[in-house]
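Something for you to look into today, if you have time. Could you write out one complete protein record for me, on any chain you like? The space below this message is yours for that.
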Amino acid sequence: MPFPRLWSLMLKEVRQIFKNRQIIFLLLFPPTVQLLVFGLALNPAVNHLSLGVVDYNNSPASRDFVAALVANDVFEIQSVQPSAAALGQQVRRGNISTGLVIPPEFAERLATDRSVDVQVLIDGVDANTAGIANGYMQQLINRYGQSLGPIAEPPVQTAVRFLYNPGLLSSWFFVPGVIGVVLTLTGSLVSSTTVIREKDMGTLEQLLMTPAQGWEILAAKIAPLFVLLMGDVLLASAIARIVFGLPFRGSYPLFLALSGMYVFVAISIGILLATLARTQQQVVLMSFFFNVPLIQLSGAIAPIESMPTFFRVLSFFDPLRHYVTIARSLILKGVGLQILLPEVLTLLGFAVLLMGLSISRFRAQLN
């Protein structure tokens, strides 16, 4: 047999892989789950867009008009507001992505074969979804106009305003999400590698012989990582402002504080993975298995609206989703803490839960 040593080494590697059940699990289960998640969650079509309505006319004609817009499930009525100001506040809070304002003279002008202007408000933070929503809205309104019969001028005309991202720049949507992705990948990988290296080099046992307590050992590992990752936040925000021209309409100190909260989440994920793995190879594979679904379900890359209902519900248990929402709201919309309070409390809960779990696992290993 040619190259006998090569075949012997290959046979040795195959035997080691089949003896290690954890590696077999990581080689088979994560790719299967990720393939299912990506195949179902990635969808270029955008459906179930949340729609808010202000109907100043409140007539059968205006109700028929709204019914025609939501007939094909592209738009779903999320709320009915009493005024355009309240509708704009709903868009600002992120409760709806599209708003529709029907004027008081809607039915009267249609009855006399005159055109009428309706106002459409679209959240332009997600430039891709905003462009698709605008196209859908125009098509549905044109179809409604054709159903009324031939007249001299279009019966319904729209005045569209793109809020928070007037130029529909895709970078304004992606960059805040990528900041969260970078913190997730860097924080979890660096912290897990730092802890797992202690196991590989045998220095973890040496730490146990020192007079330091367990919490001191863990704090000494977390503090430098936190400072370094906050430096990444500063660098990323500087690039976002200088290179991509993001406006940073909200409070920058609040952005740094909430980013620091998410840094603790990323570090906790890394330490938790390090306590579950035995080698650097295993922790890298586990990091890939956990981080990729976190990123995909967060809305940082693909809009959550395009996902099936199951994955939209599952995304609420993704801490990265809440941080991406916070980052985009602060950077593009300029909202305050009172509007972001539900997302902040959820992110704080994830930080406390994951940090407590990782500390418990790390102390168990020290003991």
Summary: Residues 170-201 form the longest helix (32 residues). Strands lie at 49-55, 75-80, 98-102, 116-123, 156-163. The chain has two domains: 49-163, 169-366. The domain at 49-163 is CATH 3.40.1710.10 (abc type-2 transporter like fold).
